[in-house]
Structure formats: structure tokens, C-alpha cells
Design goal:
It comes from Panagrolaimus sp. JU765. The chain is mainly alpha-helical. Helices cover 53% and strands 0% of the residues.
Length: 68
């Protein structure tokens, strides 16, 4: 890897973070130290990370559809 490749990689990865809105949910995930509660585990998907958050939102939508 030459210096140009390294600089390109750094420019792609080491970018300055943007300030998030105060009402943005904090990413925290599930605390497995408290045992496994499957309902809480699925609820935690909303704050686990990008992919899990979208899965959590899909689970909520599916739940809403079942109630109608």
C-alpha cells in the first residue's frame, strides 16, 4: 500500500462526526448480563445499530399489521 492509497483510505474512514439531534435514540443494545428476556431483546433492536434498528422497525410494523 502506497501513501496515496493510505491517504485515500483515511479520507474515507476517518471523517468528522456530525452532531445528532437531541431526540435521536442512543445506540446501546441489549444487556445480556440481566439474563434473556426475548421481548426486551427484540425491543433492544431499535437501539442496537443501523441494521438492527431497521430490523426492529420492521418488527414493529409487522406487529401493527397483526393488530389490524
Amino acid at each position: 500500500m502506497d501513501a496515496e492509497d493510505l491517504e485515500s483510505a483515511q479520507d474515507a474512514v476517518l471523517v468528522k462526526s456530525e452532531k445528532m439531534d437531541d431526540d435521536t435514540p442512543k445506540v446501546r443494545g441489549y444487556d445480556f448480563n440481566e439474563g434473556i428476556d426475548y421481548e426486551k431483546l427484540l425491543d433492544s433492536y431499535l437501539t442496537t445499530g443501523f441494521q438492527a434498528t431497521n430490523l426492529g422497525l420492521a418488527i414493529e410494523v409487522d406487529g401493527f399489521r397483526k393488530y389490524n
